[in-house]
Amino acid sequence: MFASKRLSKELQKLQGTLPPGISLISAENFEEWLMDIKVMDDNPLYRNEVYRLRFRFGSSYPIEAPEVTFVQDPSHPIPMHPHVYSNGIICLDLLDTSGWSPVQNVESVCVSLQSMLTGNSKNERPPGNDAFVRTNRQRPRDINFVFHDNKV
Amino acid sequence: MDSEDEVISVASSEEMMEDQDSDLSMGGDYSDVDLDVDDPDVGFETQDKDIKPKRRPYEVEFNIYGPADIQSHQDQQIDEVSAILGQPPEATAILLRHTRWNKERLIEIYMDKQDTLLEEAGLGKSLAKLPELKKVKGFVCEICCEDGPDLKTFSMKCGHRFCLDCYRQYLAQKIQEEGEAARIKCPGDGCNKIVDSKSLDLLVTEDLKDRYQVLLTRTYVDDKENLKWCPAPNCEYAVDCRVKQRDLNKTVPTVHCTCGHHFCFGCTLNDHQPAPCSLVKKWLKKCEDDSETANWISANTKECPKCHSTIEKNGGCNHMTCRKCKHEFCWMCMGVWSEHGTSWYNCNRFEEKSGSEARDAQAKSRQSLERYLHYYNRYANHEQSAKLDKDIYLKTEKKMTQLQSSSGMSWIEVQFLDAASQALQQCRQTLKWTYAFAYYLARNNLTEIFEDNQKDLELAVENLSEMFEKPTDQLSGLKVEMMDKTAYCTRRRIILLSDTAENLKNGGAHSLRLRPGSFD
Ligand SMILES: [Zn+2]
Ligand SMILES: [Zn+2]
Ligand SMILES: [Zn+2]
Ligand SMILES: [Zn+2]
Ligand SMILES: [Zn+2]
Ligand SMILES: [Zn+2]
Where does the UBC core domain lie (chain A) (predicted)? Predict the structure, then answer.
């Protein structure tokens, strides 16, 4: 693995103090970590909910972006957002080759996603959600997203 | 956009409409064109052979360039601009890439604010000193978290400093995996500083230099609006075509690469004449979204409408004969085949139900689905038939060798099969897209002409396709007939494409109109 030193440093930091609403759930290895995020204001779309994120690190992380998706289980729904498909796949330029910087990290991605939710008032899925969820078999990193609009 | 009035283009001239079925010489405008069938036996006019064939209404002008041409074009421009600016060719190349090969703009900016430009392109005075690697006390690399006094580091003028390893990994990722070269940004978060060529020379490892040079050359084509790479896998040719993006509602610029691939210069998808790019995109999106509703149709087996025994389609031809009861029917509409090819033939046209039947919302939505399925069914069917035609041809090709020995025909003489197969492929490709196109057309008398052309081509194609299913030992006897049918198919295709292209181009009182909302 290219950056085990980098990941152990990140982990060390994640085990210490984190910004409010962000917590580390599991990090058994350097391949897959789980993080929880919560929206801190009372945006009615996300009130009283905790969302679970799965980070998967490729062998060239952090040169390459990690694969980040929301995961669903009985206590963690997929948040409603025009950039989040109902299968948990996130369409965000930050996580795409063009928008990713190797200086970003797990914590900064969590913070960005948290604020992406906080700032949203649209109770909707991306256009074409149903067809995408039904037909997509690709991993998020292989999908060529056209970013609907980067302001959301 | 309210497209009730949107005229994507227009009417064929009156005379063209009149002439179109008059005879097989293809009428007025096309009589002097040389068809792609060179055999003199085929029997239609090629008298003006000495005159360079006029471009047909649906053809666009284009040129194909190989890697050597592309390189020499670049060198030529570099020399030219280098002389004007008084900069050495190497620096001029960097400047040209920096301004995306826009010569005029480069010269203008150079005259206007030379220092800023040189700085931005990585050629400024501050860089007169070559970029260098440094060891920095107390440095921790933000990417890999390594530190230590011996760590080599690099930063551009923006000050984002990383260790050499990370910088190299980053560049390798961009060059190798993402195919970037001329505009790689600094790895720093949100930093838009482009990694200049001198820094790249210092940082890029030997094994990546070739790839980097190739990519650099490629940016020339990427940056020019009139140049595009042929999208065929591993093809190295680029196409030069002057059709502008804004004209794509009026013309469908199909180009033919030297490698044999036919594609649309507008959107680089496979040839989709006569449908304009925007409708193609819309149609493909629709098919993708509706795939489950529509999937059941393109199935390979259906029941005979008379005796209900299962029938499997194994050739491209849509004229089906049930093995059991000998009933002859059309695979597409399941109607009786004998009615096809007479004035009763109505297989390609979707009949809108009268207003009374479609009054309530449910009936309307059912009708709109039926309407879509009508076109989708035929679109998908031609796609599939083209594949089946090809399969049959491949089997036939093997038998061509047998045919040669059994009939004493020469290799050249059995080429009629090859010509027929290619014509079939091309015509089915066109037919396929006429159905996507027709889906978006509002009904008027020009749509009827369009549909008549479609019907004629379809019938010609089915007739030819049917011959492919004949046993090989009969083929040599069918040579003349098959060549006639091949020529006829090609001619029907030319007529359909020419008429439609004229209509798209001209605009005016008689026009093909799109249904409301088609160009939204
Ligand atoms: Zn580093
Ligand atoms: Zn920077
Ligand atoms: Zn090609
Ligand atoms: Zn196109
Ligand atoms: Zn039957
Ligand atoms: Zn039919």
Answer: 2-152
